[in-house]
Design goal:
- There is one protein chain.
- With 405 residues, the chain is an alpha/beta fold.
- The chain has 3 domains: 121 residues, Response regulator (Rossmann fold), CATH 3.40.50.2300; 77 residues, no CATH class; 182 residues, Hypothetical protein af1432.
- A 5-stranded parallel beta sheet has the order 2-1-3-4-5, with helices on both faces. A two-stranded parallel sheet has the order 6-7.
- Strand 3, helix 3 and strand 4 form a beta-alpha-beta unit.
């Protein structure tokens, strides 16, 4: 039984949710309380898998309550429920709530969100690992990207495309901007996977304030924070993979999802470096000593690879499922059970043709990951062959290098 706790003093909402979720009685254990204090007592008695809390509560408010939950029960998925917040309110909630739903929220939509969160927990079998990721409030973003954003956004003639291009150069800022665009923090949620469209939707002021908010982003650790992994090199790898993904999927329905998945496919490493660097070191040592792929060593040491950790984080933040699935399976696309060329396949091929690998960002030399090849495209009946994919990759990477020089 999965346990869901609703914290709201609206009796009508309780009744509507009870009615809607009556058919889930055999799989979901539902509890309803009217205050944060009652909720904390209930959680001490029986912890919950998902917590849905109104932001405006009598006594202790929703933000204070979610902070307590983050500290005491980090493995619980935290969903804030209220009218779209003002900028200050949203920034206060953003590190504390995994998702934010606008009130009134249709019971059917709420059921869908809860179901998705519970399925996400199946991705990581170890509760301790789920708690580790659920505890994350901030991740580090690159100072030079902040500096560039400050400069360009001071120019009244700047375009969303220019801002989107700068944001896309940093995985953490990209993820946060898309988290907000796909939530109801500021306004009604909208499915967005294109960074430029997210900038247009949120508006320059919101993006500027997000980028400069100390509560949202941690301080960049620098190259010496973790001796084994260079995050700058990892980000460069992601940029190359995104360029290839865009070339492979141009003018298709998968393009935006594929590019976003490429930009974020290694974000799990940001979590591992910040939350469990010693375990990551052990995994790297194991990979080198035993000659196995790093993601296999991560699985043995931590119970999940960086790909699964990153996918779980993005799922908590409410990003679209095709992106989450692609990030989770970018090393083992066959595990996703794909029957056709889709976002998972596009990311796996883009990684294979990017000319770089996750392991290139390590200062040591662990074995490279296994990559897909020509048979993979044939099996999925892809709209192009391997030689054509290689040509597209070569052309776009050459253009990327010219732009950087």
């Amino acid at each position: 039984m999965k346990r869901i706790l609703f914290v709201d003093d609206d009796a009508q909402l309780h009744e509507a949710v009870r009615s809607r979720l009556r058919s889930r009685a055999s799989e979901w254990d539902l509890s309803f309380v009217a205050s944060a204090e009652r909720a904390l007592d209930e959680l001490e008695r029986v912890p919950s898998d998902v917590i849905v809390s109104d932001v405006r509560l009598p006594g202790m408010d929703g933000a204070q309550f979610l902070r307590r939950v983050n500290e005491r029960w980090p493995g619980a998925v935290r969903i804030a429920l209220s009218a779209p917040a003002d900028l200050a309110g949203a920034m206060r909630l953003l590190p504390l709530a995994h998702q934010y739903l606008s009130k009134p929220c249709p019971s059917q939509h709420l059921e869908h969100v809860i179901e998705r969160c519970l399925k996400l927990q199946d991705l990581l079998s170890r509760p301790a690992l789920r708690a580790l990721i659920g505890r994350v409030r901030q991740l580090p973003a690159q100072p030079r990207i902040f500096a560039r954003l400050q400069v360009v956004m001071a120019n009244e003639n700047v375009t969303p495309r220019e801002i989107g291009r700068i944001i896309s150069a940093d995985a953490v800022i990209t993820a946060k901007v898309l988290q907000i665009a796909n939530s109801a923090f500021f306004r009604r949620a909208r499915r967005v996977t294109n960074v430029e469209q997210a900038v247009l939707y949120l508006g320059f002021a919101s993006v500027r304030n997000l980028a400069m908010c100390a509560e949202v982003f941690a301080r960049w650790p620098g190259k010496l924070a973790h001796g084994a992994l260079d995050l700058d090199l990892l980000q460069q790898h992601a940029q190359r993979v995104a360029a290839v993904a865009q070339a492979l999927t141009a003018r298709t329905v998968w393009s935006d999802d594929s590019v976003l998945a490429a930009l974020l496919h290694d974000i799990g490493y940001w979590v591992l470096i910040q939350e469990c660097p010693r375990e990551l070191d052990r995994a790297i040592e194991m990979a080198i000593k035993e000659g196995i792929a790093v993601e296999d060593a991560e699985q043995r040491v931590m119970g999940a690879s960086h790909a699964e950790v990153g996918a779980y984080l993005l799922g908590l933040w409410g990003l679209p499922y095709p992106v989450i699935e692609a990030v989770a399976h970018h090393h083992l696309p066959e595990r996703a059970g794909a029957q056709r060329f889709d976002v998972v396949a596009a990311l796996a091929v883009a990684v294979a043709l990017s000319g770089t690998d996750d392991t290139d960002a390590f200062h040591s030399a662990p074995p490279r990951s296994a990559l897909v090849g020509p048979d993979f495209l044939v099996r999925l009946k892809a709209p192009f062959g391997w030689s054509q994919a290689e040509e597209r990759a070569v052309d776009c990477l050459a253009a990327l290098e010219r732009a950087a020089s």
